[in-house]
Target: BTB domain-containing protein
Amino acid sequence: MIDDPVIFNWKFDWRMLYSQGVDRLTGYIELKDTGNEFLPQKIDVDLTKVEQNVTKSVIIENDSNIHLKVSFEYYLTPHYAHPKKVSYEDLFAPSDMNDTVLVVEGKKIHVNKVFLSYHSDYFKALFSKSFKEGSLSEIEIKEVSYDDFGLLCSSFYPSHQFPNDQTVEKLLEMSRRFLLPSVTKIVEHHLSHISKIAIPKKIWLADEYSMDYLLDKCIRQMDSMEKAKKLKELPEFDKLTDKTRSLILGRIMDFM
Model:
């Protein structure tokens, strides 16, 4: 009787997931032999490098050469790194680059007029000579919280932080109020390529905030009659614009 070790090796390459914010993959591989030459094996997996091998040695007790017929399945859970929160105090601190002060909830925010005006037509108008605020040394911004304004600015400032599924709605709301199309585009990219938000909610957001690329992608992802009809039956369907509802109905017609 000879105990022959058989080496199984899996090579994982998850660079694409890493680029989408995944920091780690954990789970296991389930290895089976249809010929019952060895018992089912469960191999723990903990991937912290984007290119990593997982190896398992299995002892085969047999006195002759055999041909193994094996199958395997893997079950992995992605873990997302918590982004380091931007310090709003540092973001809005006085510097040689800043030339005016905004006041939000009684807190002074030091900003650069040209930079904000470049990104936002709201601030371009606010800082112009046509508005009395443009000549003030301090300008109060009302009906917005300090944290929400910090979140908004941190999404397009040089030391920016990317949106996540918890911040997208607030960013879209703020970008519409302060006329910041670049922020809407950043959020649209997140929703289109990274977000785990369900398609019906994405469609509503795309419709509400005129994100055509996201809307088109979501419509195309309804790849069956069942998915398209299920969306039509949701309460959110009646809240959509006529244009978006017609796109969904058109998608249903594609499967008839």
